[in-house]
Amino acid sequence: MTRILTILFVLFAFQAYAAYTGPTSDTYNGANTAAAAMQAPEGATCVLEGNITMRIRGNRYMFKDASGTIEIDIPPHVFGDMDVSDKDRVKITGEKAVPPSAFAPGPKGKGPRPDDADHIRVRYIQKIK
C-alpha cells in the first residue's frame, strides 16, 4: 500500500506546467504608453516603459515616458527588495484604475477627492538595462 502511495506521490509531485506557444496576433488591446493609458478604459492592461520620477504619497508615484506622465500605485510587495531611483528605466505591468469618485460625489457632496486620479495599479515591475 505504501509503495502505491509513493508512486502516486512521485507522479503528481512532478507535474509539468504548460503555456501557449503558438502564433499570436500582432494587435495588442492594452496601453503601451502613458498617453494611451490615460485614455484606456478601466481594467485595461498597461505595459509601460519609462521612469518613476517621484513619490507623491504612500504607494503613489509619477511615471513618465516619451508620451507623457501618469500616476501609478505600487504596493511595497511589488518592489520586493528592488531599489528603484528616478534614473532607472523600468517596465511596469498593471491595469488602469478609475477611482470611485469619478462616478460618485466625494465627501459630503463636495466633488471628487483631490487625491483621487486615474492611475495604474502596478502588479509587476522590472528594471531595464
CATH topology-level name: OB fold (Dihydrolipoamide Acetyltransferase, E2P)
Q: Looking at this structure, what is the CATH superfamily?
A: Bacterial OB-fold
- Bin the helical content: 10-25%
Give me the strand/helix succession. Answer: HHEEEHEE
Provide the CATH top-level class: Mainly Beta
Distance from N terminus to C terminus (CA atoms, Å) equals 55 Å
CATH-derived architecture: Beta Barrel
Count of the separate structural domains: 1
Give a structural overview.
The chain is of the alpha+beta class. The protein has a single domain (31-102, 110-128), classed as Beta Barrel (OB fold (Dihydrolipoamide Acetyltransferase, E2P)), CATH 2.40.50. The protein contains three helices and five strands; from the N terminus they run ααβββαββ. The radius of gyration is 21 Å and the shape is elongated.
Provide a short characterization of the protein structure.
Strands 1-2-3-5-4 form a 5-stranded mixed barrel. It has helices at residues 2-13, 34-39, 76-79; strands at residues 45-57, 60-65, 68-73, 89-97, 119-128. It contains 3 helices and 5 strands.
Task: Describe how the helices and strands are arranged.
Layout: H1 2-13, H2 34-39, E1 45-57, E2 60-65, E3 68-73, H3 76-79, E4 89-97, E5 119-128
Parallel strand pairs: 3-5
Antiparallel strand pairs: 1-2, 1-4, 2-3, 4-5
Record keyword descriptors for this entry.
129 residues, OB fold (Dihydrolipoamide Acetyltransferase, E2P), five-stranded mixed barrel, 5 strands
